[in-house]
Write a structure and sequence with these properties.
Elements (H helix, E strand, L loop, with lengths): L12 H6 L4 H4 L11 H22 L3 H6 L1 H10 L6 E4 L6 H6 L37 H15 L5 E6 H4 L2 H13 L4 E6 L10 H11 L1 H16 L4 H19 L4 H6 L2 E7 L3 H12 L5 E6 L7 H5 L38 H15 L3 E5 L9 H6 L4 E3 L4 H13 L3 E7 H4 L3 H9 L6 E5 L16 H5 L6 E3 L4 H13 L4 E4 L22 E4 L4 E5 L3 H13 L5 E5 L2 E3 L3 H10 L2 E9 L4 H16 L6 E7 L10 H8 L3 H17 L1
Parallel strand pairs: 1-2, 2-3, 3-5, 4-5, 6-7, 6-8, 8-9, 9-11, 10-11, 13-14, 13-16, 16-17
Antiparallel strand pairs: 10-15, 12-14
Helix pairs in contact: 5-14, 7-9, 11-12, 16-22, 18-20, 23-27, 24-25
């Protein structure tokens, strides 16, 4: 889904920040780096940081990760020839320097805005963007596929994958490493360690051994020595085995993190300074000369070059950033009155209300435990961890493991709450089906960021989970109309004995007065207003838009009712079948893809009733949601809702058009 950039977006902020005569502005592409001196390449690095800071101060975005890989990105492009050579960025939120080096400086100010530059690599933007990513752990497999395709056709291009230390530990990454080591696929894997996960050994011995292992002398002597020792009569095999064991011990002693990769058959090099461009270029060139796979482990600093981000890498990771001040020397931040004023407090969002209610429930029930997959802050469960550290588990970027573990905890008598973003929960589909639901275990899934998420784009919109989950037996699916209802639904989920998916958006709360959270009858919708012409049935907080649209329609003399569905499985069949015969039109609202979504559930119920009774349904059914058949691009949530007709004006427009067509018939 594409659109013209939203009016008012300042596309040129990055270009103005570095200057039209700067080295960065004069680059036509990464090939121009090869003619620059070392000092000029260092200037390019400074200008990349300036452009990124100036832009994200306006647009938000993944500031810390991108600032951390400036020298790394320059080094890769300096020794490679993109787009013939292929650079894959796992996850992709560290790709801003890459975008700026590949011809997107002039429009970089439109970063993450509707119709503008994407926050992740996008193949439609540039031939230098190899893969539309967004989910961690996929890059190594993609890189291997590119390398295998190269080898089949007899190509010679270089393949490099940049993967973060946390993503490297995901199951998919480990599966890929195992296969790469077995096949000896020729490729470079750059492990970007920003100390968020792995904490390896550093020192002169490790650096020295890395150089030795990449040298032709080491490779040749190791191979020749193995052949010689293996050929000795009687003792050859035993001596060879002992020799290899000793070598592994030496490697393990000086660089323990590399032991796993060496055992898998992948040459490990590191730890290198991820901000020493020349050191990395030397290692990359040597790695590309190796006959098989090589991992070069580099240590970087998230937020490098911007003191607030260096000091607080979690807050400045992205995508929503605190207020930033641009133009103040980064080394003076906090020393000369240059600290920016605190932003105005925001209303809490549904995530915060969900987490707070889980914490409140856990105070009375020690069976309740909380699990997340590398997102404790984003899901609000960091506060649960602070309150109940012995009942909190962050399993890292391993959504499948999170769900399977939760199922085991439930089988053991616990009441697990698993909070994962909707887009990432897609990765645990089999565990939801096979583990939690097939075994009918009371796991509460906090499906965070359900619906449109916004600026992170196609990979992050939470638009598919509802449709997928609605097919699964035994899974109860609910969504609240407001913040007090989400509290009640948390209590409802914890009071029943089946798997339960609670969908909620990243939106701010409605401001409804607090009330005591009490369990709600499962499968029973709530009628908010009666109407005989049109009945609007909303699933989730979109009900609030439905209420306001109903008021507008009533101003035209229509009798309009509103129903808060609450449940997508099981649905309130009896209510919807009655409405099918007592109203002229039923309009379903959902912030999910319409194919097989909540509107589909209502349509199936009406069709089944008509087939069973033989009585015709008088109501026309209009399903309003995210249109099927296309991904939704990046842009603010409000802009996207306007674009696809899910804002109040768009909903009203669609209803009036359908009502007019019905009257014409």
């Amino acid at each position: 889904m594409s659109a013209v950039t939203k009016p008012g977006v300042d596309e040129g902020v990055a270009l103005r920040a570095v200057g039209a005569d700067s080295l960065l502005a004069r680059l036509e592409g990464p090939e121009d780096l090869k003619g620059l001196s070392g000092a000029e390449l260092n200037q390019i690095g400074e200008q990349l940081r300036t452009a990124i800071i100036a832009t994200t101060a306006v647009t938000g975005g993944h500031l810390g990760p991108s600032l951390g890989v400036v020298e790394l990105t320059i080094a890769l492009h300096h020794v490679m020839a993109s787009p013939v050579d292929r650079i894959v960025f796992d996850t992709g939120h560290q790709a801003y320097p890459h975008k700026l080096l590949t011809g997107r400086l002039a429009r970089f100010g439109s970063l993450r805005q509707l119709g503008g530059i994407g926050g992740f690599p996008r193949r439609t933007e540039s031939p230098h963007d190899v893969f539309d990513g967004g989910h961690a752990g996929t890059g190594i497999s993609i890189g291997q596929g590119l390398a295998l395709a190269r080898d089949v056709r007899g190509g010679s291009e270089k393949i490099a994958v940049v993967v973060g230390d946390a993503a490297l530990m995901s199951g998919l990454s480990l599966e890929a490493l195992n296969d790469i080591g077995h096949r000896q696929t020729k490729m470079l894997i750059v492990l970007n360690d920003n100390e968020m996960s792995i904490s390896p050994t550093v020192g002169a011995i490790s650096t020295y051994l890395s150089k030795v292992k990449l040298s032709k002398t080491w490779r040749g002597s190791k191979s020749g020595y193995d052949k010689f020792v293996g050929s000795l009569p009687l003792i050859g095999n035993k001596l060879l085995s002992l020799s290899k064991s000793l070598r592994r011990s030496v490697v393990s002693f000086v660089q323990e993190p590399g032991r796993l990769f060496e055992d898998l058959g992948i040459t490990y090099v590191g730890v290198l300074d991820g901000h020493d461009r020349m050191q990395m270029e030397e290692a990359f060139n040597a790695a590309f000369a190796m006959p098989g796979p090589v991992i070069v482990h580099v240590r970087t600093q998230k937020g490098r070059g911007y003191r607030p981000a260096e000091a607080d890498p979690i807050t400045f990771h992205g995508a929503a950033l605190p207020k930033m001040e641009v133009g103040v020397p980064t080394d003076s931040y906090g020393k000369s009155g240059s600290v920016p004023e605190a932003p105005a407090p925001k209303r809490p969002n549904y995530t915060a209300l969900f987490a707070a209610e889980v914490i409140a429930a856990a105070a009375d029930d020690r069976r309740i435990v909380a699990i997340t997959a590398g997102m404790p802050t984003g899901t609000g469960l960091d506060k649960f961890a602070a309150a109940y550290p012995d009942r909190f588990y962050d399993v890292g970027i391993a959504e499948q493991h999170a769900v399977a573990t939760a199922t085991g905890i439930a089988m053991g008598g616990g009441r697990p709450v698993v909070a994962i973003y909707s887009t990432f929960l897609q990765r645990a589909w089999d565990q939801i089906v096979h583990d939690a639901c097939q075994n009918d275990q009371p796991v509460l899934f906090g499906v965070d960021r359900a619906g449109l998420v916004g600026e992170d784009g196609t990979s992050h919109q939470g638009m598919f989970t509802l449709t997928a989950q609605r097919q699964i037996p035994r899974l109860v699916i609910a969504s609240p109309k407001d913040e007090q209802e989400i509290r009640a639904l948390v209590r409802t989920a914890l009071a029943q004995d089946h798997p339960f998916a609670l969908h909620y958006p990243r939106d701010s709360i409605e401001g409804v007065a607090p009330r005591e959270p009490r369990p709600i009858p499962v499968g029973k919708a709530e009628t908010l207003a009666e109407g005989s012409d049109i009945v609007i049935v909303g699933f989730g907080p979109i009900v609030q838009r439905g209420l306001r649209v109903a008021e507008q329609l009533r101003g035209s003399g229509l009798s309009v009712g509103v129903v808060n569905a609450i449940w997508a499985s099981p649905i309130d069949d009896a209510l919807y079948r009655r409405l099918g015969r007592s109203s002229k039109m039923i309009v379903t609202l959902e912030e999910s893809v319409t194919a097989g979504g909540f509107g589909g559930a209502v349509a199936e119920s009406l069709a089944a009733d008509q087939a069973a009774t033989g009585e015709p349904i008088s109501a026309t059914l209009l399903s309003i949601g995210i249109p099927a058949g296309a991904f939704v691009d990046h842009g603010s949530v409000s802009a996207l809702r306007t674009l696809i007709g899910l804002d109040e004006a768009g909903i009203e427009r669609q209803i009036r058009a359908a009502w007019g067509a019905r009257r014409a018939r």
